[in-house]
Design goal:
The chain is mainly beta. The chain has one helix and nine strands; from the N terminus they run E-E-E-E-E-E-E-E-H-E. Strand 3 and strand 4 form a beta hairpin. The longest helix has 10 residues, at 76-85.
Length: 94
């Protein structure tokens, strides 16, 4: 199954990165300040393939799927890391 992760970053080293299963509010301004310079957030959509039996809980920002020991739960950030690493059932879509 393919899902969209919503990533918010800033164009400066060591700035925070936010990942979500729901789109970021485009009307809300997100900034990060370094010294006296204020950086605006950059938002992009990342397509990720996850296991077909996965369930998405957007209110809790969690994805769950069947594992060897029962249901496994992961945050949007953890799903991104699994896909980036190419773990079983996960990959970045093209």
């Amino acid at each position: 199954m393919q899902i969209t992760l919503y990533q918010r970053t800033y164009p400066v080293k060591d700035a925070p990165v936010a990942l979500s299963l729901v789109p970021h509010d485009r009307n809300q301004r997100h900034t990060f300040t370094v010294g006296e310079v204020v950086y605006e957030a950059e938002c992009k959509e990342l397509l990720v393939v996850i296991p077909d039996d996965a369930k998405i809980d957007p209110l809790k920002n969690l994805v769950s799927w069947g594992g060897d020991d029962g249901r496994v739960f992961a945050t949007a950030k953890e799903v991104f890391e699994l896909a980036r690493a190419g773990k079983s059932g996960f990959r970045m879509a093209k």
